[in-house]
Structure formats: structure tokens, C-alpha cells
Design brief:
By secondary structure, the chain is α+β, with helices and mostly antiparallel strands. Helices cover about 40% and strands about 20% of the residues. It has 18 helices and 21 strands. Strands 13, 14, 15, 16, 17, 18, 19, 20 and 21 form a nine-stranded mixed beta sheet that branches. A four-stranded mixed beta sheet has the order 1-5-6-7, with no helix packed on it. β9 and β10 form a beta hairpin. The longest helix is centred in the C-terminal third of the chain and has 27 residues. The chain is rod-shaped, with a radius of gyration of 46 Å.
């Protein structure tokens, strides 16, 4: 069937725009809705001076409407199967083509709830009587032929030649005549293309009618329910998100859900709105961020103000990511505890004035504290020149002993770098003694409701303090307990100092002097020292004395050598290898 589309318009000076012979087109609609009558004539037919009205009427099998109205955003997603003009129903061009192909009018169209029925076929329509089109693809999806090729083929056939287009290609086909050149201004914005020929919109409508696969409007109640659920989920997830990256990630995912539902609905034959759910999700995200700022922002500001004095910025940020790691109040936990003190600082403080002493302490404590916090440590407090710090609280750190030993080494090396500078300022060389012990203590915020300190209590803290003081007895500067060494030995070189019994404890503890990182070259004498300590533990005093004499003026070797000489001379009758300290 061949269907031609003509514009119905007004010639200059003509008064009628609809011929009286067709004032009531032979088309009957049952169950028509009132909204079908609300379309004005100007919405249907744009006046054009083209052909005389009578000529158009005589050549048309059925008059049809070729003008469609886009959605509010200017995109052509829908088409009206029927419009009324002067009280008479006028079909869309595509529907008119179908009616002509099906037989001679009159035709009976039946309006049902949400449907327009044409015989056995049904067109789903919305409240405005419009059908949602299912576009098959971009322009050219439906076969198109050049008008010039058609005319040229006709001329060749008349001359008895071979046509450019085989007439059989058009047998039993619906044919629409339209324009696609940009200059003719019939390109429309559609969901699949910004420049879609208007004639192809009519072809799409007919395609959907023949295939019976117009898109259906999604159930309004379901859309409302899903929109509410998405908004609620977005609000909850954003409020519970602890990081900016997490919030952005959820925002991207949540905003993608309505778009995904739109694509999924389209593939399933449903028109699922995207804009309203997307806006609902966006508003929920914004509201969630406001709530986060008002609630968690307050908590984060409190944590920062409470811990910034003795925690590194990195540790604080990790706590802010998961505040559940921070348990306010006391709790039992294994920590690696660090005590340090400057050798002979009392004498130094007597030589310096208050300003110079304060400047010296500030420089020294800043250097040491920076290193401790870079290693993830918590600075407990300063007591004059002494520093108390610990690892594994408030954040759990599986390698807390390693961190503590590495920080101690770095502190000693930093002080060595500045020793010459400090000597110029004080007149003496500064040396720092450090004691580290790993054990279980109570850690938490201790103090009053208005003023508190995050600190540790327990015997392990006391032992760390005793080890710092024990350095004086052995001439060492970095002493760690056996418990610490057992957890950190995989990362360092160390020599055994021996077993000591500190003031206030009945049980002896084996202690070590950390010498350097494992990746560094170990001292050449380290293996010989370990052999000498084996002689001491076995009570082989002569062998021990000979071994210790090889270290010359090493304070620890001298101490052992003197003790062994007493045993060999009989001044001491026995010794179990444990040093009993009488000073703290």
C-alpha cells in the first residue's frame, strides 16, 4: 500500500481550512475521553500555503495529522494516536496509514482505560492520550530511499528502461514520504538522536503498532515506592559513610541506580522515569552530608582537639575513619612503652638561663616527638626532658614493638646529628637513654570530667621506666626487654645485655641493646659478643674474662670483666648471672 502525506493548509485569501465534504471524517471513536477534545486546532495543523484544499481532499484516502508536540524538555518521546479538530477525530499519520492499509473507512476505534483498541491491536496511552515510542535505533534504522532515485526509476520505467530501484522492493510495504535535509527543518530531538527526521517518528509509531511493543508507563505507585526506598537508602548509606571517598563512591552508585532502572525498564518494555528518582537520591545525599557535618563533624572535631597534642595527624585520620577503634575510658591492652631521658640534664639546666633552656627543650622535644608520631606512636606526656610514649593504642598496631624500636633508633641518630649544635649551646654533649618494654597495661583517658590525659597505668609501664634508668648501670643508651625483643627481633640487630632485677620487681628480665636495623651491616664483633655471653651463662668465668677483654673500653664489657675478675679472685664466691639493681 502506498500512503502519501500532505499538509492541509490555507491558500492566500481562502477562509475554510477544512473542506465541508470532510467536516466529519469517516472515523468513529467509542468511549472517547474528555481530554481528547482539549487539543486546539493550532496544535494539529500549521497553516501553510501549499496546495488548494479541495485538491488535497480529493486525493487523500484519509486525512491525518503530521504534527506532534514534544515533551516539556523538547524531546519527542511520545506521539498522540488521535487528536480532535473541529470536533472530529484525526489520526496520526502513522495510524492513518495503518487504517488505510487495513481497509476502507469507516473504522471503529475503542477507548479503554489506558488503551486505544483498533481491532485486535491495542495502543497503550497515558492520561494525555499519548503513546510512548520504542525507538529501534538512530536515524536510518528503517530503510530509506532517495526521492530522486524513486523519480528516476519512474522515468526509466516509462521509457522502458531498468529502474534504479526495483519496484518489488516496495510491494506490500508502508511508505512514508518526508524530508531529512537539515535545511528543510524537519529534524527532531529524540532519546536516540538529536537530529532525527520527523518522518521516521511516524515510521517508529507504525513499527511499534505492528509489533505491538509500545513502551508502557511504569506503575505510579511502584515508582513512588522505589523512589522513597532509594532516597532512604541513600540517606542511611551517606550518614554511615566515614570518609569523603566513601561518600563520593556511594553517591556515584546511588545516582547510577535510577539510570540503570531506566535502561532496564526500557529493555523490558516499561518507561521508567529517571529524573524524579535521581533528584530524590541527590536530595537524600545532600541531606545525609548535612547530618554528617552536624553530628559526626562535632565528634571529629572533639577527637582532633583531644588527640592532636600527642598523636600524629595520620593516626588521627585513621581514627576518624573508624571511631570505633577509639575506646574512651580504661581498657586492658598490650602496649610497647617508651621512656627516654637526657643524661645529666639537671647539670645542664643549672648552666642555662630560662629562655635558652626552654628553647633547647623545645628543639629537642620537637625532633623526638616528630619521629615518635611518624612511627605511629602516641606521646603520653613530657616530664621536663623526659618523654613517655607508647604504641598499639588508641589504634591497634600489630607491629607495635617494631615501631617502638625503630623510633628509638631514629631518635638516637637524630640526636647524634644535632649533638655538635647542642654542644655549642650547652657546653656539653647530650646523650639520651631509652627504655622500652612490651606488656599489658590499662590505657585510656584518665583524669577529671573536664581535664584528662590519655595515658597508661600498670607494671609494664613501671618496668619500661626502670629499663631507661638501668642504662646508667651498664653504660648503654637503648635498652629493651626480652618481651619487646621477641616481637621485634626480625627487624633489628641487638646484643644481649644480660638478666637484671630492677627495683620493685622480684622476677629478673633479660634485656638487649638495639644496635641497628636488620638491613644494615651488623657490627663485626656481634657474633663474638654472643659467644662471650654464652660463657657467662655457663659459668665459664676464665673464658668469659678472656672474651670480654677484647672490647677494650666498652662500658658493658668493662662491667662484666670486673664482675668476672671478682669471681676469679675469690672476692665473689658465686654469681647466677643476674644483675640486681639498687637504683631506679
Amino acid at each position: 500500500n502506498y500512503v502519501g502525506a500532505f499538509f492541509l493548509g490555507r491558500q492566500a485569501g481562502q477562509t475554510d481550512t477544512w473542506p465541508s465534504s470532510l467536516a466529519r471524517p469517516p472515523l468513529h471513536v467509542q468511549g472517547q475521553e474528555s481530554w481528547l477534545h482539549q487539543s486546539a486546532a493550532s496544535e494539529l495543523i500549521e497553516p501553510r500555503a501549499t496546495f488548494p484544499v479541495d485538491a488535497v481532499a480529493r486525493s487523500a484516502a484519509l486525512l491525518a495529522n503530521v504534527k506532534e508536540v514534544p515533551d516539556a524538555d523538547g524531546v519527542f518521546r511520545r506521539a498522540s494516536p488521535l487528536r480532535y479538530f473541529d470536533g472530529s477525530p484525526v489520526p496520526l499519520l502513522a495510524l492513518g496509514a495503518y487504517l488505510v492499509a487495513e481497509g476502507t473507512p469507516p473504522h471503529e476505534l475503542v477507548m479503554e482505560a489506558g488503551w486505544l483498541r483498533i481491532g485486535e491491536r491495542r495502543i497503550p496511552i497515558d492520561r494525555q492520550g499519548r503513546a510512548i515510542l520504542r525507538y529501534r535505533g538512530k536515524s536510518g534504522t528503517h530503510e530509506s530511499l532517495s526521492a530522486a532515485a524513486v523519480i528516476q526509476s519512474e522515468l526509466r520505467l516509462l521509457e522502458g528502461g531498468t529502474p534504479v530501484i526495483d519496484p518489488e522492493e516496495l510491494r506490500d510495504c508502508y511508505v512514508f514520504f518526508g524530508v531529512s535535509a537539515p535545511g528543510l527543518k524537519d529534524l527532531k530531538p529524540t532519546p536516540v538522536s538529536g537530529d532525527y527526521p520527523g518522518v521516521e517518528i511516524h515510521a517508529t509509531f507504525l513499527d511499534n503498532l505492528l509489533e505491538q511493543d509500545f513502551l508502557l508507563d511504569a506503575d505510579r505507585n511502584l515508582v513512588v515506592l522505589v523512589t522513597l526506598l532509594l532516597a532512604i537508602a541513600a540517606g542511611i548509606l551517606i550518614v554511615r559513610s566515614r570518609t569523603v571517598a566513601g561518600s563520593l563512591g556511594w553517591a556515584v552508585v546511588l545516582l547510577a541506580v535510577p539510570v540503570g532502572l531506566g535502561f532496564l525498564g526500557y529493555r523490558s518494555g516499561w518507561w521508567w522515569p529517571v529524573m524524579v528518582p535521581s533528584l530524590a537520591v541527590l536530595f537524600a545525599i545532600v541531606a545525609g552530608e548535612v547530618v554528617n557535618y552536624a553530628t559526626e563533624g562535632r565528634q571529629k572535631r572533639f577527637i582532633k582537639s583531644a588527640f592532636k597534642q600527642y598523636l600524629s595527624g595520620d593516626v588521627i585520620e585513621q581514627i576518624l575513619l573508624d571511631p570505633s577503634q577509639l575506646k574512651l575510658g580504661g581498657e586492658k591492652r598490650e602496649l610497647s612503652i617508651f621512656f627516654s631521658d637526657l643524661q645529666g640534664f639537671s647539670a645542664i639546666s643549672e648552666k642555662l638561663g630560662p629562655v635558652a633552656l626552654t628553647a633547647l627543650l623545645n628543639d629537642y622535644l620537637t625532633d623526638m616527638s616528630d619521629i615518635i608520631m611518624e612511627e605511629g606512636g602516641t606521646v603520653d606526656k613530657y616530664e621536663g626532658d623526659a618523654i613517655i610514649a607508647f604504641w598499639n593504642a588508641p589504634m591497634a598496631q600489630a607491629d607495635h614493638a617494631v615501631r617502638a624500636c625503630r623510633a628509638a633508633l631514629r631518635c638516637q641518630r637524630k640526636l647524634a646529628e644535632r649533638r655538635a649544635e647542642f654542644r655549642e649551646r650547652t657546653g656539653v654533649e647530650l646523650f639520651m637513654r631509652i627504655g622500652i618494654h612490651t606488656g599489658e597495661v590499662v590505657v585510656g583517658n584518665m583524669g577529671s570530667h573536664n581535664r584528662f590525659n590519655y595515658t597508661v597505668l600498670g607494671d609494664a609501664a613501671n618496668l619500661a621506666s626502670r629499663l631507661e634508668g638501668a642504662n646508667k648501670q651498664f653504660g648503654t643508651f637503648l635498652m629493651v626487654s626480652e618481651t619487646t625483643w621477641n616481637q621485634a627481633r626480625g627487624g633489628f640487630h641487638a646484643r644481649e645485655i644480660g638478666s637484671i632485677m630492677v627495683v620493685g620487681r622480684q622476677a629478673p628480665v633479660t634485656v638487649y641493646e638495639v644496635l641497628g636495623l636488620l638491613e644494615e651491616e651488623p657490627p663485626a664483633w656481634l657474633a663474638a659478643w654472643q659467644q662471650a655471653m654464652e660463657h657467662v651463662r655457663a659459668g665459664r668465668w676464665k673464658e668469659a674474662a678472656d672474651a670480654m677483654s677484647a672490647w677494650g673500653d666498652d662500658p658493658l664489657a668493662i662491667k662484666y670483666r670486673k664482675q668476672v675478675e671478682k669471681l676469679l679472685s675469690g672476692e665473689l664466691t658465686a654469681w647466677n648471672g643476674i644483675w640486681k639493681l639498687t637504683e631506679k
